[in-house]
Amino acid sequence: MTTSYDAEFMYAREAETMPRAALWDLQVERLRWTLNRAYDHVPHYKRAFDKAGVRPDCLNTLNDLQHFPFTVKTDLRDNYPFDIFATPVGDLARLHASSGTTGKPTVVGYTAGDLDRWSDLAARSLAAAGARPHDIVHNAYGYGLFTGGLGAHCGAERLGCVVVPISGGGTERQVTLLKDFNPAILCATPSYALNIAEVAENMGVDMATLPLRRGFFGAEPWSEGMRAELDQRLGIKSVDVYGLSEIMGPGVACECDVARDGLHGWEDHFLFEIIDPDTLESLPMGESGELVITSLTKEAMPMIRYRTRDITRLTDEPCACGRTHLRIKRVTGRDDDMMIIRGVNVFPSQIESVLVGLDGLAPHYLIRLFKDGPLDAIALDVELCPDVPEDDKTLAAKAADVRHHIKSIIGVTCQVTAKRSGELPRSEGKAVRVVDTRV
Length: 439
Ligand code: DLL
What we know:
Blueprint: H1 13-16, H2 20-41, H3 43-52, H4 73-78, E1 94-98, E2 106-110, H5 112-129, E3 136-139, H6 147-159, E4 162-164, H7 171-181, E5 185-188, H8 190-202, E6 214-218, H9 224-234, E7 237-244, E8 249-255, E9 263-265, E10 270-275, E11 289-295, E12 306-312, E13 314-315, E14 327-328, E15 333-334, E16 339-341, E17 344-346, H10 348-356, E18 361-372, E19 375-384, H11 392-409, E20 415-419, E21 434-436
Parallel strand pairs: 3-4, 3-5, 5-6, 6-7, 18-21, 19-20
Antiparallel strand pairs: 1-2, 7-8, 8-9, 9-14, 10-11, 11-12, 12-15, 13-14, 16-17, 18-19
Helix pairs in contact: 2-3, 5-6, 7-8, 8-9, 9-10
This protein binds 5'-O-[hydroxy(phenylacetyl)phosphoryl]adenosine.
């Protein structure tokens, strides 16, 4: 049997290529349904709408959404565990939760219908990334309360793929199964995919010669340089997938493997806005700011204007793949991950972009924030590639080189320490990029 891997394959062609006018009509209809559901079934939304002086029937066009209040993460925490749900908890099919480093976790609920739509959108995303029915999908996203594992799993099954539910960790075993099962698709965080590539090299397995075709990578910020590194070391096309627990999980938006230039946000299920995080004003198409998402079809947990804290921009320029849904450009980071070092705004992903362009450096790094007297300061640990000499002179020269590039490209002065190959911690899921010792 020959399988067609044509770039035109779409899991849901009619929805994905819908003319904009039809999409807007569908969005208004679904938005009205969502606003009514939220107002009638969730006391938090009733209070918030009443306080803002709006009711669901105030919405005539999509533009009217801007009169409705935002939802923020603390609204979920304040309604812990189940008060933000529009469905009685006993009628739900599943609960997920985000671990959260401080305070209570945020709990998210799904009805059977929500899970069905999530599977569809994850399948749509995998197909856009280049997965096809009958492909073997190696799923190294963590299973459990994190939405990555089960989200990618159900999407792959829905698409008609064969799933290997390996979850994260046990990296040597991952490499063995990648070699023996010959999957076409690797699902993982980009930092874990890099760890897998490195362990494979150490085991003498040349990943680039295996049939693996695509990486379905997301759940954390990553740079174009990291993409090039993963493409080359794994012999694949790496594709960016975005999602967040509060909205759904993986599959809110995904790049197509035709353009790999921005993630198609599935607009028949979500509305995307960009706001200025300081003034909270909506920004025009193309401007950079905070991504705000409204769900259009969620039953258990309708989300009205959820402030993601993710910094990006939208584009509605036509895409070569023919999909009509707008694209979310690469998420540079969360505004709460942004470091302000002596007046300069820096995201960890900017530092990554500089490092992956430098010879002799492995793309592993750790940023440390500390107090230098009254001022915030930044230190950076980087790591040499295994083939680079590891004498003290080389380490010092590399550190100086990195310091120079960070200063000239990003504009901040940082203390750099170059480490020998293998000295920095490796990721098995979402990488920890920043350690903050300020307090
Ligand atoms: O990370 C869902 C997911 C799983 C997405 C697997 C993609 C793949 P949370 O744990 O709730 O959910 O974390 C959501 O992770 O607000 C972003 O800050 C970040 N994030 C997710 N995808 C990307 C991406 C999952 N492609 C938070 N690029 C989001 C940059 C991302 N950041």
